[in-house]
Amino acid sequence: KMGLAVDNVLAVDVVLADGTLVRASKERNSDLFWGCMGGQSNFGVITKFKMQLFDCPPQILGGLVLYSIEQAATVTSAMERFCRKKDLPLECSVHLYALSLSPDEKALALQICYLGDPNEGKEVLRELVECAPCLDNQSKVTTYQNHQVFSDSVYRVKGIPSYWRSRYVREDVSIPIDTIVKVIEVAPVEAILVIEHYGGKVRDFPTDATAFPHRDQDFVITMVGFGFANPERRKVIVDWINASTNSLEAVLGDGSPLNYDGHDSFRSFGTNLPRLRELKRRYDPDNFFRCNVNIQPAEVNVEKTSVVIEESPERDPSNLDLTGKERRPNSHDGTGTSEISHQGLVRPPAV
User: How far is the C-alpha of 50 from the C-alpha of 65, rounded, in Å?
Assistant: First the structure.
């Protein structure tokens, strides 16, 4: 409904490779601002964001609806049809998960959210939720804040290794239901397959509105392996993800959401890459900020750059003291925006 996070950033404070602290927005240092909206951490350390705020309903509808794995084809097909409806309300969001409840039992789950009146949401989502008999309907009236964090226990358990791969589905194809079902059927016990739907206001922006270019692809397929106990199980996960990617390759597009991204710069940034390389040459010609989906500076010898970096260990980002200029507590200015600061010593985040 509100687009991507980068569509709602109004300004950022950035520490550049030479230690300069600058503010970037559409009105000031607009080229740097454009690059930071989807260019990951290629241009500096962002220490503060000014964000556009929106009114949020006090109550929403959200949660999981579980189905038996035998219903995988029916539920996946129903999800795609539902999400492709021309009149789908912008308040509606749907993700699909295939996961193991135990070594011997797999299940399918729809994660539903309606960012509006819960009763209205129940009616809008009824045809999808009732597409097949469910094992357990855990959707409920909740708050947006609680819905945002209910799956954190899965994704943020410290010390558990994981292996990810994520790709958009091409705009001009349908989700290959039979292939998805086969991928789910052979998935290891540690694996989760996720199909996420985007669309909505994300599509209202042209490809070059931000550095992030993937505006016209509505679905993302992600394969994850969690908590593998040893190298042998890790190999099982990696082999499954590689084989699954190969079987789906005909329908997969380039890139993925940036917080999932692990691709080369061309897949990640597409036609925006030449402009990003020029920005990199201006703001970070030595490629100091390189622990990311790296954008090579325009007209720079890659081999020479890497040698220079290796000979300058004193420039490790962990040694940057960011407690100096413009350090203020988090604040709200009362005008429908919010400023968020990173305090203390900070490594370059993915932006």
Answer: 36
